[in-house]
Amino acid sequence: MVDLTVVILTKNEEKNLRKCIESFRGIARRFVIVDSFSTDGTETLCSELNQELQKIGSSLDFYQNKWVDYATQLNWGLTQTNITTQWSMRMDADEELMEDLVEEIKSKLPELSAKINGVILRRRVYFMGRWIKHGGRYPELLLRIFRTGKAMCEQKVMDEHMILFEGQTVEFKKDLIDNNTKNLEWWTNKHNWYSNREVLDRQLTVEKTLNEQSLLENNQSTKQAKVKRIVKNSGYYGLPKFFRAHIYFIYRYYIKLGFLDGPEGKIFHFLQAYWYRFLVDAKMYECEKFDRKMDSQGDLKA
Length: 302
Known about the structure:
The protein is α/β, with parallel strands linked by helices. It contains nine helices and eleven strands. The protein has a domain at 184-289. Strands 1, 2, 3, 4, 5, 6, 7, 8 and 11 form a nine-stranded mixed β-sheet that branches. Strands 9-10 form a two-stranded antiparallel ribbon. The longest helix is centred in the last third of the chain and has 28 residues, at 262-289. The two termini are 36 Å apart.
């Protein structure tokens, strides 16, 4: 067993959480669930999982905390739940470790030198049961494992990343997977919620009330995250509204070969690269036309 605590945020994740926990195959010493008052069976499931984990020398602790935003909730989980293990890890409830990544973590993490404080993992996204391998979606490189107390989630409204305060990072070779089993109605509701967050984030950035670059520039995240943010803010948002969504979809679906992902890929790339980006632009246009400020967003109600 690895001296590792895994922090997972939940809101109505009864359908996803068990497969997330079980994907660790007993290597994590502790799981911390920070729940924003689920109304499904998440809390009951956590009690069942804790009983099962205790039989193999692990544990799961369930906390509830009022949602403000993702970064605040995650940082609360990292700092207010008495994490004493050498390593901490951020996971989403709809993510899973592949079996070879479990073995890689088990064998490599305890042997890392003292100068390594962070581990970057490769993530693959599944949509309607299919791996979205093209369209520039794979691999996503994410800082997910870090020495306890050496990292935090940057305080942003949208597109927040883990940042490392000091030390170096290493990249593991095997994959983490994002495999949400909820239906398309939930997915579109979630992205409608995301679109509000993105408009607010953009408004704050433009108004200079949020120092958008400071954490990624002055601390360590992944090079991929930094490049994506520069391209998004200096390139994408420099293009005309609505037109840029059209261009982005063409880039993802044709130039980056998203069409090779089949019917599921066609749905995913259209909704995520065109519909979602167009919706963000439409909400930006509405706010500008009527001189409105997007309200702060609570947790996802779907």
